[in-house]
Amino acid sequence: MVEAKYSWPYGNEVGQEETIESDVLVLGGGLSGCFAAIAAARKGLSVTLVEKGAVERSGSAGTGFDHWESACTNPCSKVTPEEIAEAYVDEQDWYSNGIAHYIECREGYDRLLDLESFGGKIRDTEDEFAGAEFRDEKTKLMFAYDYENKFTIRVWGSTFKPALYRELKRLGVRVMDRTEATALLVEKASGSRQEIPAEKALAGMQEEKTTGGSQEESGNSVLRGIGAMGMNVRTGKFYVLRAKATVMAMSRPARVWLFSADTTGLCEFRPMQSIGSGHAMGWRAGMEFTMMEKTVRAEFSAAGRSFPPYGAGNNHNTWYAATMVDARGVEIPYVDRDGTELKTVSERYYPAPGQKFFLKGGVIDNPKYEYRGPETLDFEELMKRGYQLPFYADLSRMPEQERRVIWGMMVGEEAKTKIPIYQNYTERGFDPEQHMLQSYGTGWQSANFLEQERQFFGAPGGVMHDWDLKTNLDGVYAAGDQLYASDCAGFACATGYYAGRKAAEYAKTAPLGEVCRADVEAEQERLYAPLYVSGEDGVSWKELNMAISKAMQNYCGGVKCEALLKEGLDLLESFEQEIVPKLTAANPHELMRVHEVLDILTVAELVLHASLARKSSSVPLCFNRSDYPELDPENDRKHIVIHRENGAVTTRDVPLGFFGKLKTEYEKRNQDYIQEVAAREKG
Amino acid sequence: MKKVEFTVEQVPCSTAPLKYDETLCIGCNRCAEVCQCDILLPSAEKGKHPIVMYPGECYYCGACVMVCPRPGAIRLSHPLMNRAKFVPVKKTEE
Ligand SMILES: Cc1cc2nc3c(=O)[nH]c(=O)nc-3n(C[C@H](O)[C@H](O)[C@H](O)COP(=O)(O)OP(=O)(O)OC[C@H]3O[C@@H](n4cnc5c(N)ncnc54)[C@H](O)[C@@H]3O)c2cc1C
Ligand code: SF4
Ligand code: SF4
């Protein structure tokens, strides 16, 4: 226990304020934020990167990742960026981020080479897997999933975050660790509001609807981002961060339905620090979002249900294509998309006869026939055939190199595996040649959730943007998991770099905006208020988070309808009025947790509004309205883009294919980059 | 701004994610510096290991163990309910 005399170790700077000016401000120092900062710094601009944790190991990929997806331009790839990006769009029924996927497919491999140049490990330089079927002997690159087409690369992701951190330092980026961004600074001018996509020709149909607030007040001002505000989470110091351009890279919301007051850090799949602050501050500032009505029945929350990620028997992701056996030790067959049983381990890594390539990985759950890869027999079918639970992953039956690459490389380099799985299990006596690891669910999730336990997973909603990854706020860009329909590390690195480069271009001609003093003072008051509520009279952040998640399970669970959603909004509004003023915090760490829950409250409201706006049900959006049961009517196959301005919620329709022809539209806007890459390849 | 005193108390949790070995730890605080959830606070005594102030907020990522220069000085273990089971492989005659 802590001695009674222990006092706060970091000093007290509450009420102290500092203004920092830069050309480009990046909020969030995960993979996408780091690459945004690097891109802008390479253009010679002054860059500030604000990170709530510590960049060295922060974000989803802080301790690593093992798959680099969609590396279509690597020298061994047999697919084109167009093929894979278009496959993703089609696979997700067009509720997909075509722009970002194309950037990932087209530029992702360049970022991997960047990571290598910073000191990260991307190939088998020590020849540990020499001669393996998944290894290219010339480049020493190692592939996963589709060994024929070679566009997913196995990487040593545990080396990446420290390498990025060193590079940021080397480039002179001002890194502000332990600083939470809490609000955007915006400047209003009269004129007509920016519309996304900027190109009207691409935008096609656009219909505006407004609810609440007053018509005259809303929708008629140009909003321009001019920086952000934030607080040091150890000392309470307040920052005004002025910038010509801003990149938002704070990942996606969490803890909206899933909460445990006891093991809060295990509530969700992504890190505890990422709870959708970017979404919340964007919504407050009038930023546009899409697909926020999409949530899935939870797939992963280690608090009470799931087992540690990649730490239970399964054959997905890191563990693809592990041999699975049933309780009797009978092997579970793999089949191709036509149901043909595969005889060898090797066959699990090749497309079916007549299939060009298959998709696997992050957001690919149960793909369409066209893209479906080898998979173990369906759970129902296994039950019918008399297979007995529990199932296990049994690596002892695999060829030595396949076993070693799963247990030791992938389990080891994947996030949260080096210590929590590889080291821990080894110390407990696990030996992949001697033991099989139990499986708990029917897939990689290792748990089954209730319908009302929702999560932002599998390409959820997020920030709406144009071909520059610019939001509707002029000068504000977004990247990585902050974008709508995002997924994966390659996506984060590629979109981060792209957003950083576009933000830099913008910053070259834009002036610093004038910060409104009243905005600064209001934010200080909002942030510090809980410090002045005594613990005895106050409400803790945990109590409010618990109440929000229960409310969302009740009012925005598996089945939704107008009356329920409105009751939900009503309850959340009462929390705003009655509970928020009572929130209490005893130090800056607790204050940060309070701020997170305020953001979760905002995100919950955003989700309710987005759910109200879609008046039909949808399979790809996992969206079920009992009052509008019709599934995916043609009229509603569109983005319902939503934002709030002056208290009014406004929606606008954007066609799902608004991004146009991917290659053409990309090349129109990126000749400078294309030439850079060509010059590098020549020289 | 009115002056406010910070207070801090270890928050109880049903599990203990991290354990320090005093005989190995040199109190360098590297583990506290990298923890993205900021749940470890430096000891008041120089050279002593940090305090696991907010154990319930641990994300079980292992970054603190990875950065530690003294192997074994800090150990991470899963909550009991999360310890997955493994058994000896079964040979079948098919
Ligand atoms: C366990 C796990 C395994 C994964 N494995 C793979 C894999 O093998 N392959 C793959 O392609 N993808 C994988 N992913 C997904 C991939 O890691 C993420 O999609 C990617 O890292 C997202 O990057 P990002 O920069 O958008 O977000 P993050 O890396 O999560 O970074 C967001 C950053 O923003 C910071 N932040 C949040 N709020 C604030 C605020 N208010 N102010 C300042 N900073 C803030 C956070 O601290 C964090 O550092 C995995 C994810 C997880 C969780
Ligand atoms: S395991 Fe991760 S979250 Fe837990 S204390 Fe260590 S660094 Fe922090
Ligand atoms: S990093 Fe290791 S040696 Fe340093 S304080 Fe932490 S446990 Fe002790």
Bin the helical content of chain B: 10-25%
Adjacency order of strands in the biggest sheet of chain B: 1-4
Mean pLDDT of chain B: 95
Poorly predicted regions of chain B:
none
Helix content of chain A: 25-40%
Q: Overall 3D geometry of chain B?
A: extended
| Estimated radius of gyration of chain A | 25 Å
Alpha-beta classification of chain B: alpha+beta
Tell me the number of helical segments of chain B per DSSP (H or I, 4 or more residues long).
Answer: 2
| Distinct ligands, ions and cofactors found in the model | flavin-adenine dinucleotide, iron/sulfur cluster
The coarse silhouette of chain A is: globular
Quaternary state of the chains = heterodimer
| Main pleated-sheet profile of chain A | 7 strands, mixed
Structural class based on helices, strands and sheet pairing of chain A:
alpha+beta
DSSP, total strands of chain A: 21
Quick recap:
Chain A has 683 residues and is α+β, with helices and mostly antiparallel strands. Chain A is built from 17 helices and 21 strands. Chain B is built from 2 helices and 5 strands.
Report on this structure:
- The complex is a heterodimer of chains A (683) and B (94).
- Chain A is α+β, with helices and mostly antiparallel strands.
- Helix content of chain A is 30%, strand content 15%.
- Chain A has helices spanning 31-42, 81-91, 98-117, 160-170, 200-203, 277-285, 379-384, 400-406, 410-413, 418-427, 489-509, 517-528, 541-555, 562-579, 588-613, 662-669, 671-682; strands spanning 17-27, 47-50, 67-68, 153-154, 174-176, 179-190, 208-211, 221-232, 238-248, 289-290, 296-297, 324-325, 334-335, 375-376, 392-393, 435-438, 454-455, 462-463, 476-478, 638-645, 648-655.
- In chain A, the strands form 7 sheets. In chain A, strands 1, 2, 5, 6, 8, 9 and 19 form a 7-stranded mixed beta sheet that branches. In chain A, strands 7-21-20 form a 3-stranded antiparallel beta sheet.
- The longest helix of chain A is centred in the C-terminal third of the chain and has 26 residues, at 588-613.
- Chain A is globular.
- The N and C termini of chain A lie far apart (61 Å).
- In chain A, 57% of the residues are buried.
- Chain B is of the alpha+beta class.
- Chain B has a domain at 25-78: Alpha-Beta Plaits, CATH 3.30.70.
- Helices cover 11% and strands 14% of the residues of chain B.
- Chain B is built from 2 helices and 5 strands.
- Chain B has helices spanning 30-34, 63-67, and strands spanning 18-20, 40-41, 51-52, 74-76, 86-88.
- In chain B, the strands form 2 sheets. Chain B has a two-stranded antiparallel sheet.
- The longest helix of chain B has 5 residues, at 30-34.
- Chain B is extended.
- The mean pLDDT of chain B is 95.
- The chains are: A alpha+beta (683), B alpha+beta (94).
- Bound molecules: flavin-adenine dinucleotide and iron/sulfur cluster (2 copies).
- Flavin-adenine dinucleotide binds at residues 27-33, 50-53, 58-61, 65-67, 69, 180-181, 249-251, 269-270, 273-274, 277, 309, 362, 414-416, 480-482, 488-490, 492 of chain A.
